[in-house]
Amino acid sequence: MTVWSRAVVRWRCSRATNLTHRGLCYNKPSKTDLKVPPAVANLPAGSPASSFKDKGRNVQWVFLGCPGVGKGTYAARLSKLLGVPHIATGDLVRHELSSHGALASQLVDIVNQGKLISDEIIIDLLSKRLEAGEAKGEAGFILDGFPRTIHQAEILEGVTDIDLVINLKLREDALIAKCLGRRICSECGGNYNVACIDIKGDGDKTRMYMPPLLPPPHCENKLITRSDDTEDVVKERLRIYHETSRPVEDFYRRRGKLLEFDLPGGIPESWPKLLQALNIYDDEDKKSAAA
Fold first, then answer.
1. From 22, 183, 237, 257, active-site residue
2. Where are the domains of the chain?
3. pLDDT tens sequence across 83-98
4. pLDDT tens digit string along 182-224?
5. How does the annotation summarize its subunit structure (predicted)?
6. Is 182 noted as a catalytic residue in this protein?
7. How many CB atoms lie within 10 A of CB 156?
């Protein structure tokens, strides 16, 4: 049996037989199986973020968007706010690369050339991550970086019910600048960005300002650049995304699950507007802004 087949079998079987853990179920759980996160328990019916509430389980969301748009940043924030795990396939790949296992050498060439990793590999890594989460009693998820192709979307559709797909959008010149400015702390793994993006308005486009996300002093001398964050590789990733992943947007749009969100600027400007689009109130964020 191929890696792909084993992964799909494991994925289907784990959901068919373990309905009370993550909400990642092949069969629907009852409303008493899983708890709705307090932060969104009282959302009005019909709002984007309340779609999961009537189904009696935690959120099962997907983040779409070009490489470098900030899927990981916003997915991680929502993950913390809603109390569900943030699962980024990019992180799964980087973890596998750092393991120096049999798969790592194969992944190095793919990643450094900016190519898409095969469905077989992605599904296998994702299946392992979900199995590990099951052991910890995780419920619900926010997926980041998956699905990227129609094939992947169809597989996901066959094993679980996605509630909402958030499609983050950002102008391409800002995307390239963001990718080239990304830095990672080699010690703590923190993600930062040294780029200060200030693009003047042109025609119907307004000025866009995105300040750098600088590291704390103890990380300043430990920053490294991802091997695939070069201009040629970034442009190749964007080209591949436009060819293979945009149809995924149409896939979810036809199902009435797509929420398109144009990022107006950096995190301070975009985060409250994203919450507003999702009809979510972040009490802690309001307190921080007022302090």
1. 237
2. 57-275
3. 899 998 888 888 888 8
4. 999 999 988 899 999 998 877 666 788 888 989 999 999 999 9
5. Monomer.
6. yes
7. 20
Q: Among 22, 71, 129, 183, which one carries the catalytic annotation? A: 71
Strand, helix or coil for residue 42: coil
For this structure, is 6 an active site residue? no
pTM of the complete model: 0.70
Total length of the chain: 291
How far apart CA 175 and CA 167 sit, in angstroms, is 15
Q: Cis omega (within 30 of 0) on the bond before 147?
A: yes
Are the beta carbons of 21 and 134 closer than 8 angstroms? yes
Tally: H helices and E strands in the chain: 11, 10
Top-level class of domain 57-275: alpha beta
Is 237 an active-site residue? yes
Q: Which of 15, 22, 182, 257 is catalytic?
A: 182
Q: How far apart, in Å, are the Cα atoms of 4 and each of 33, 126, 177?
A: 30, 11, 36
The single residue of 22, 77, 148, 178 carrying the catalytic annotation is 148
